[in-house]
Amino acid sequence: MNQQEVNPRPAMGAAAAASIHTLITFLGKGRDNPSTGYRQATYEFPDGRRTTAFFGLSLMEYLQPDRLVILGTSGSQWDLLVEHVIGGEEEAARRELVEAVLHASVTQELLERVTSLMTKTLGRPVTLRLIPYGKDLEEQKAILATIAAVVDKGAVSFDLTHGFRHLGMVGFLSAFMLERIRRLEVRSLWYGALDMTSNGLTPVLRLDGLRAIRRWIEALDGFEATGDYGVFSELLVSDGVPVETARRLQAAAFHERTFNLPAAVRKLRKFLPVLSQPLKGASGLFQEQLRKRLAWVEEQRLDECQRRLAYQYLRRGDFVRAAIFGWEALVTRECFERGLNPEDFRDARREAIEQLEAEIQEEVHPEWKRRAYWKLKRLRNNLAHGWTPLNGSQQRLLEDPALLTMELEACFKRLLG
After folding, report:
1. CATH superfamily membership of 21-207
2. Global confidence as pTM
3. Which end of the chain is more exposed for a tag (fewer CB within 10 A), N or C?
4. Mean pLDDT per 10-residue interval, the chain, length 417 residues
5. What are the residues whose beta carbons fall under 8 Å from the beta carbon of 371, sequence distance 6 or more?
């Protein structure tokens, strides 16, 4: 690394700070080399080779972040890092660091004494922070809290190469936390794969694929909780699906959530051909799972689509949507059986129900169907409109999720199959 001093970057205004890019790297206790600690390696970066003992510093040269954050324990090789960067300056502090590292007693105050010179030499704001060893949950939480405290805006990249092996996992978890809690952009994850060195060259791995997989798992969890398949749209676009195609998922989700299922079905049927070909990236790993979750669209009749959604929402505990889709499936089926247009929401659907209720009043249908019909209609009205039941048995259902699930499922099975 070139240790010639460079001028620090100018201070940023508020607007620029919002897009600031921070590189976080970990410092361990490597002692392979008495002068540098870590063994020197020649790393193959996308733009060329760099020979260094401190991968994080070479990664900084490649990424050119606005800030550098170095995290290490009280026994990390702070002395060798500081000497590598600032050379013979701040001799008193460096001597103290050597002694402190030897006894694993480095303090934050000691690191602060060399921070300004590190900043001046590296040409960007440098933050040196002590972290615990991460031996238990409390120490692991403290590491995450430290990372969250030093990066509060903009984008962040992580070097997961050095430090204890388990700190790489903590770093990956912190990337996930910053995305979710701070709404920061995690730009990249890096690993200098020293154990993969061949013919004197060490590969530099970009681990963003792991982050993409984690985002898919998170999206699947979100879908299972809400039924909103629009959460997959952005992920598919990232893996090469055309924007207009992926937006059909968002449009379909909107139509479904406003109970315009015919429109949702039309959008999804235009999207489904995408899943018939292998997808790139992490999307390919989850392609079959997405196809299974959209399988209800392949039903030929609208009432069957509504029936399957009623059961799906019931399994999720979304009683309002379950009751509404169950009711709409019944109405649609009655329209088909009576030769009425189920998509005529103004007249035909009302007429189908009026005819069915007239038949129920005349006891044309068996008692089990009559009872199930009135039960589903009352539950649908209670749940959709917030009406207070007039009888005690109905009130008890709305106070017990297990009983409500059983009752709705029984209604669906009797009326819809």
Report:
1. SSO1389-like (3.40.50.10640)
2. 0.71
3. C
4. 41 54 88 62 94 93 96 92 85 88 93 93 95 88 88 89 74 77 84 91 90 87 86 92 94 91 93 93 91 90 94 94 95 94 89 92 91 93 77 80 94 94
5. none
